[in-house]
């Protein structure tokens, strides 16, 4: 029903935009990919994973690597989570190839980012997204993030795109709650928060759920927030939101891949290095991240509940530190 207040969540409610674990030599750690995917689904309670998106370093992985990463994740958790494959680029023909490869590899859906750098007009966006959606039988989640791409998807264009039977969702990182509300009231697009700080506000205007970066470490908390909000316990959802503010701010001190891999490495989980031109987190940044996570009550996942709150006054003793085994 267009404009319904009941969330339509075609890809699940809690999804994490998964990093791509890498070895010290910069090669993809495919065993780590499988282990991290299982951790995110089985321990962090993710309903789905976005693979080969920005957080997966899609800008610097080859098409061959993307396919193998996707197949690895599908094999590891595809029977119990929705796997959404990043297939967008600024070249329509290349995006169609990526989409078809993702479909053959077993993806359950596609994430299509707005074309970047060449800054097409709105009619170009309409044709681009429609051509890719026409190329496979997979449902599509658009990704509207003008801060990275330089081009927003206009509200009117989103309404037109929503008429396509396979364009069913939008990952919204436009940070314009008014524009998002306007589109949600006029379409049945499922909206997913693409900015972790706005997760709870997005729920309040009808979002289906989240595509999160911090879900790598607090996915369970975010799932609790969704459950609390939809059960009518808004006060509990707000309390979770406020407790996680240090995580939201800390993990975006710099580019999210850098901080996420640092936290995973500090936790003994598969993360590894980043690919140039990104740079690995400095010791100083790692120390700040430990303080941020401790302030939010986040513990190491190794033998401890990763989303269990730390008792008042115990943050210093329970903080996540580098080298935790």
Structure description:
- By secondary structure, the chain is of the alpha/beta class.
- It is built from 14 helices and eight strands.
- It has helices at 30-42, 63-77, 92-105, 122-135, 146-149, 155-161, 177-186, 199-204, 215-230, 234-243, 245-250, 256-266, 283-295, 315-318; strands spanning 14-17, 48-51, 82-86, 109-113, 140-144, 167-172, 190-193, 209-212.
- It has an eight-stranded parallel β-barrel, surrounded by five helices.
- Helix 1 (30-42) links the parallel strand 1 (14-17) and strand 2 (48-51).
- Helix 1 packs across helix 2, helix 6 runs parallel beside helix 7 and helix 9 packs antiparallel against helix 10.
- The model is unreliable at 1-6 and 302-325 (pLDDT under 50).
What are the defining features of this structure?
eight-stranded parallel beta barrel, alpha/beta
């Amino acid at each position: 029903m267009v404009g319904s207040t009941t969330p339509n969540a075609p890809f699940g409610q809690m999804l994490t935009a998964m990093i791509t674990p890498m070895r010290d030599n910069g090669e993809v750690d495919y065993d780590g990919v499988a282990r991290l995917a299982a951790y995110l689904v089985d321990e962090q309670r993710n309903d789905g994973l976005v693979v080969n998106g920005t957080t997966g370093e899609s800008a610097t992985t080859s098409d061959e690597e993307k396919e193998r990463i996707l197949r690895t994740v599908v094999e590891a958790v595809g029977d119990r989570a929705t796997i959404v494959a990043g297939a967008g680029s600024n070249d329509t023909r290349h995006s169609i190839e990526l989409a078809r490869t993702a479909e053959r590899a077993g993806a359950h859906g596609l994430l299509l980012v707005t074309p970047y750098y060449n800054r097409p007009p709105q009619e170009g966006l309409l044709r681009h997204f429609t051509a890719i959606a026409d190329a496979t039988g997979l449902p599509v989640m658009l990704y509207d993030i003008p801060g990275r791409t330089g081009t927003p998807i206009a509200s009117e264009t989103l309404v037109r795109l929503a008429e396509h039977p396979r364009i069913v969702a939008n990952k919204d990182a436009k940070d314009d709650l008014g524009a998002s509300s306007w589109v949600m009231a006029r379409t049945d697009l499922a909206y997913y928060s693409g900015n972790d700080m706005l997760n709870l506000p997005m729920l309040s205007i009808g979002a289906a759920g989240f595509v999160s970066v911090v879900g790598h470490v607090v996915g369970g908390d975010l799932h609790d927030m969704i459950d609390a909000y939809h059960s009518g316990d808004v006060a509990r959802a707000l309390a979770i939101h406020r407790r996680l503010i240090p995580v939201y701010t800390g993990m975006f001190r710099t580019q999210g891949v850098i901080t996420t891999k640092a936290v995973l490495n500090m936790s003994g989980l598969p993360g590894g290095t980043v690919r140039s031109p990104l740079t690995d987190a400095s010791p100083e940044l790692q120390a700040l991240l430990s303080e941020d996570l401790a302030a939010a009550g986040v513990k190491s996942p190794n033998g401890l509940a990763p989303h269990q709150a730390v008792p008042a006054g115990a943050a210093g003793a329970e903080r996540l530190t580098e080298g935790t085994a």
